[in-house]
Amino acid sequence: MLYRLLYHPLVKEKDLPKLNATMKERMKSAVENRLMTEPEKYSKPLRKTLKGYRKLRVGDYRIVLRVDEDIIYILGICHRKDVYARVEKRIC
Fold first, then answer.
1. What's the DSSP call for residue 88?
2. CB distance 48 to 59 below 8 Å
3. In terms of DSSP bridges, do strands 61-68 and 44-45 run parallel, antiparallel, or are they unpaired?
């Protein structure tokens, strides 16, 4: 099953421009090869305040997402120390 991707507006405005070229390529590969094919297999569920969301680990960075039927909503792509606080602000 192929999934459609939707990005939170701040992902394209703030998260992606901060990544260097190598990390951008790794993120692109992770999204295309893992998330677009089997997001439940490759991502792990989050707990507590982010229950219902999932994360995909790419080195020290995390992609936080939500899967609804055939749509994947990407809410954040950040370093692991910042990502959860940023995503919590974005979902409020």
1. H
2. no
3. unpaired
State how far the Cα of 63 lies from the Cα of 85, in Å rounded to an integer: 13
Q: What is the pTM of this model?
A: 0.93
Per-residue pLDDT of the chain (92 residues), as tens digits, is 889 999 999 999 999 999 999 999 999 999 999 999 999 999 999 999 999 999 999 999 999 999 999 999 999 999 999 999 999 999 97
d(CA 55, CA 81): 13
Q: What gap in Å lies between CA 89 and CA 35, rounded to an integer?
A: 23
Whole-number Å distance between alpha carbons of 53 and 45: 6
Q: Are 55 and 46 in contact (CB under 8 A)?
A: yes
Angle at 4 between CA 14 and CA 79, to 5 degrees: 30
What would the two tokens of residue 90 be? Answer: 């974005």
Nearest to 59 by CA among 83, 40, 75: 83
